[in-house]
Amino acid sequence: MVVVMKERATEVQIDAVIARLIELGMDVHRSSGATRTVLGVVGAHKVDPELIGILDGVHEVLRITEPYKRASRTFKPDDTVVVLDDVRIGGDEVIVMAGPCSAETDEQVMASAAAVKRAGAKVLRGGAFKPRSSPYSFQGHGEKGLQMLRRAGDAHNLKVISEVMDVSQIELIGKYADIYQVGARNMQNYTLLRELGNVRKPVLLKRGISATIEEWLLSAEYILAGGNTEVILCERGIRTFETATRNTFDISAIPVVKKLSHLPIVADPSHGAGRRDMVAQLARAAVAAGADGLIIEVHNDPDRALSDGAQSMYPAQFDRLMAELRIIAPAIGRSICLEPMARRGWAR
Ligand code: PEP
Ligand code: MN
Question: 149 with 126: CB under 8 angstroms?
């Protein structure tokens, strides 16, 4: 449930309500808005709303009707911002994560990292453990791949995101990556989600290929319920009857999620389109629709990529896309990395 405090509720009253709820065995999340304080309350027990409604300073007690609680905007009205030093995901700035589908060689990861950094990306993506549709396809380099990503991230001042496929990989990936990626195929791997609730690092949770938005938010709830509040959602396209693109990129999921949840949402137009000549269009649309960021496959030599080459952008294409996003983002009141412009002198 949600306890909405009166506009003029005092700190003493708020603290007393929180203390009572904790005494009843509940978890309380406090959101202090400009005018009112809202307490999101969840727990295994049932608490009589009337008992809480009569406490001093309480305006009203509402039930959270959504099946997901902690992920809902009712529970926490203000946007969640995931902070990694100077990288803020879910704030004003549109954060772009980019890099190859898989970490293949040191040279490839380093060259891709240099290219995406130059264009204005803030996070380096790359898989070391790859969920491939065929067991005969390249499965990733494991720890060696993680080392390549970390070296390139450090060399180019980029945060690193990499996919975790199994509980047994959590500790190892945590040594090298700044953000865990949960792939579409694992969105309902509840054992994995539960374990990621215990880590204190952000998790980017991709939407399953045939998951509804409600199922996706319930998966986020597993991570949040474990105490990890840093969940980033990622729309990457869903399976429909359409075969012209690899998946059907669900643009409407972006405003829907923004309405239902406080969690940041980023878009993956690469897996949405499945072909590099359509990635920029979807990326532009996602930013215009309100995405907090993008995750895009960029490879220094995509024609020789070991995975997802056809959808990986050439560095020059990505650079151009970033320039276009610099026009779109301010049009909807967002900012985006301006370093490359300043470096090239376009800002003057
Ligand atoms: C990936 O990011 O390379 C990937 C495997 O994505 P998804 O889980 O969305 O298919
Ligand atoms: Mn990929």
Answer: yes
